[in-house]
What does this fold into?
Amino acid sequence: MAQRYVRVKNPSGDIYYGILQVNRSVVLLDGPPWLGGKAINSQLSPDSYQILAPCCPSKIIAVGKNYSAHAAEMGSEVPKEPLLFLKPPTTVTADKQPIYYPPQSARVDYEGELALVIGKTAKNCNLTEARSKIWGYTIANDVTARDLQRLDNQWTRAKGFDSFCPLGPWIIRELSIGAKLTTFLNNCAQPQQSAHISDMVFPPDFLVAYISQIMTLLPGDVILTGTPEGIAPMQPGDTVRVEIEGIGVLENLVVVGEQLPAPAPRTNITLSRD
It folds into this structure.
């Protein structure tokens, strides 16, 4: 079994990076492993910690329509270059934590994806350099308020709600290009999504190189590599499970989000010159 790197919180609220053992205990590290964190003489026993999202990215760069069949189901062609958008770090949530269904939306979709974790600063990389910048791989769910995406004609609000980027449960260092990605809803035997990582239009090293020529990627940043066909809506009470061979399972329950009071009536504001 591949070594699994986790981020956990102990009962006192202290947060650590660590290595998950077969018996579910965690060997603690003195820092993020991609920054050279080393094992310390301390372990957390099973059931004595809460597993968190495996990293704290400064930014999440996502790629749209990176599987041909998904582009077709969205009624569009595959982009000639990667189609990029950002999700704020506040969208990140952990395995087994809830996805909050926002009251502003009437349709919220799952999008199971492979996520790349950057290990070294990447700027203006070529393909060879880009491969060395990928520290590891984890699972993501690019949750999307589909109706708001269509209404706004851009994606910031639709993909930016808190909890809209489940991530985890851990990071592994190596992944077979033939690994299969599947998404299940409510423990149904038949997957909603099923594809191989090799089905991507733009592979991971190309994405890192391309993005690094636009913005500097920092250690711990995350790239979501796109979702296969089979997207569909979720409802409060649903459980969505994303699996990637060689990594594991990311599972989250959808719950009703907080109903906020309506905004105050708009008033005219006069700007003065100083």
Summary: The chain has five helices and 20 strands.
